[in-house]
Amino acid sequence: MSDNLARHFLLREDVVFLNHGSFGACPRPVFETYQAWQLELEREPVDFLGRRLNELMRVPREALAAELGAGAGDIVGLTNATTGLNIVAQSLDLKPGDQILTTDHEYSALEKTWAYVCRKTGAEVVVAKIPMPLVNEAQFTDAILAGMTGRTRVLFLSHITSPTALIFPIERAVAEARRRGIWSVIDGAHTPGHLRLDLDALGADFYSGNCHKWLMTPKGSAFLYARPEVQHLLNPLVISHGWTAKSKEPGASGAFGNSPFIDEVEMQGTRDPSAWLSVPSALAFRREHDWDGVAAQCRALAQETAMRLAELTGLDLLSAPEFCAPQMVAMALPDCDTAEIHRTLFDTYRIEIPVFRWQKTCIARLSVQGYNSRAQMDRLIEALTELLDLRSPARQAAR
């Protein structure tokens, strides 16, 4: 798998890169498309940004919408998922006493976003503790529904969690939120290209995801989805040429002939749209290389590696396989100095992988992408075995 596919990527050969989940890695042909767009922009900036941009932005929007099971008028191109989720969080009309229901597995930047919103509005965050290990859908949904009250205004969930690499089975919780009149806001930073998405069928009010991770587009390409019925609730973070005073009126058009949702959110002043314009190239690369087949191989290798480490540590997996992200797995480690393990893995073994403490659990979060190999997994297991002294008699006895 990797010998053939690794040549398509720009990653350093002296580093075992097992951290695709943080920022992704862009294939060479897609990166070349990205650079071609940048060059075209620089050759005639006024024509590119002043005359052609509206039509240029439409092409990736339509291509991505088809990939995600959404209407082309229901997504906008942004630089990252955090921006999209901030647009939603800072737009919703929250008041003192309102509650934002979320979980104890959320991404720290978004925890800060909701804390900021609460400070401004007087709303409060309610955290549902998800029982671990996650082994069935009801276990998750029951914990969420138990946290819903008459004061719950927002349900904020990750689709794939960042620290624990779990797939949350969000469908029933989203449906119940809709039934109760609760806005559902989904953090899909890790989902596009990782799971098959049908956003219209899911029915979440708002969903933001990154393209630069598992879709393998250049950095700075993401999207925000909003159901047509709730698009009028959103305000842009930046007021620029796309805004009109009549944007909240029924049937209003944006400044450039699209919906106010598209024109107000996508137009943020001068910015380089080349990463977003490269989305169709990334989709084509995935089709050309049968990425569904590649992903299946990656999933098998990720699960195999997690099982190998669990056998050495004697520690339980964090979930049943069906609730583990397909190409990303959070592997529990014995109690250790996670910062030191992380540093030594890179400095001594040239392995790039996040190692951190989540609540009381030490974790190494493994990503497996098409450029990785079983030999690299062997190198990781050997390094962790040495650093954590996993074969020592004392460690074996402790198991």
TrEMBL record:
Keywords: Pyridoxal phosphate
Alphabetized PROSITE patterns for the sequence: PROKAR_LIPOPROTEIN
Aminotransferase class V domain ranges (all copies): 48-379
Pfam families: Aminotran_5
SUPFAM superfamilies xrefs: PLP-dependent transferases
Gene3D superfamilies found in the cross-reference section: Aspartate Aminotransferase, domain 1, Type I PLP-dependent aspartate aminotransferase-like (Major domain)
PANTHER family: HERCYNYLCYSTEINE SULFOXIDE LYASE (PTHR43092:SF2), L-CYSTEINE DESULFHYDRASE (PTHR43092)
Protein name, per record: Aminotransferase class V domain-containing protein
